[in-house]
Design brief:
Layout (H helix, E strand, L loop, with lengths): L3 E3 L8 E6 L10 H10 L3 E5 L4 E2 L7 E2 L11 H23 L6 E6 L1 H12 L6 E5 L22 E6 L7 H13 L4 E6 L11 H11 L1
Parallel strand pairs: 2-3, 2-6, 6-7, 7-8, 8-9
Antiparallel strand pairs: 1-3, 4-5
């Protein structure tokens, strides 16, 4: 499936928002949020690529890594296997859009958040910021990421529904605590009675973070 794109109205976009869907989903699952962000700021270039392979849990969706048989012990290895391709995707999309990496915002949902947060741990190059919705680290970081300088920490926005029964809200709470301990400029937004989904209540949080970041 080709990626969904919302092109900037200007020749030089204000920023590139790369959006990564959850396991078993498709770019279309993030299209309403993409439309909202583009209406909010038409100067944004927004791209929503499809996961690397067809989902093993959904006949119509895609995945960044396989979750069949995934455990706390093997999740990180699966993410690391997919990370070189994920890193290339980020660089290729930025290059084709003509936007420097420091003007790129990564926005993930669920498995897309896992990939984005793990990219933060491993990259030597910084993006403008990362938004993680209803996700987690595959494994909490032990050291401050190389891409986040002490004098210019890479901002991270975590959003999680308190009624999420797929990925517990405690995952974002633990991620926020660890990022804060490591000196990462992070914020955490917990939404009461919200399950494992993206709601319109999250939209203003996302646009506010993007505005502050770019």
């Amino acid at each position: 499936m080709p990626s969904i794109r919302f092109e900037s109205r200007t020749a030089t976009p204000a920023a590139l928002i790369l959006m990564f869907h959850g396991v078993g989903a498709s770019p279309e699952s993030l299209q309403p949020l993409g439309e909202y962000l583009h209406q909010y700021n038409p100067d944004l270039e927004i791209r929503i690529p499809a996961g690397f392979s067809p989902s093993t849990i959904s006949s119509a969706g895609f995945q960044w890594f396989d979750v069949i048989g995934v455990t706390e012990e093997n999740r990180l290895a699966r993410v690391q296997e997919a990370m070189p391709a994920f890193n290339r995707l980020i660089h290729d999309e930025a290059a084709s859009a003509g936007i420097p990496l420091d003007k790129v915002v990564l926005l993930g949902f669920s498995q897309g958040t896992i990939m984005s947060l793990e990219w933060l741990k491993q990259s030597n190059e910084a993006v403008a910021g990362i938004i993680g919705i209803a996700g987690r680290f595959a494994e909490l970081p032990q050291h401050a990421p190389a891409c986040s300088a002490p004098d210019n920490p890479l901002p991270v926005c975590l959003i999680h529904g308190e009624a999420d029964q797929v990925i517990s809200v405690t995952q974002s709470q633990q991620s926020y605590q660890r990022l804060s301990e490591l000196g990462i400029n992070s914020e955490l937004h917990l939404l009461p009675a919200t399950p494992h989904t993206i709601t319109q209540t999250m939209y203003p949080i996302i646009t506010d973070f993007i505005q502050k970041t770019i």
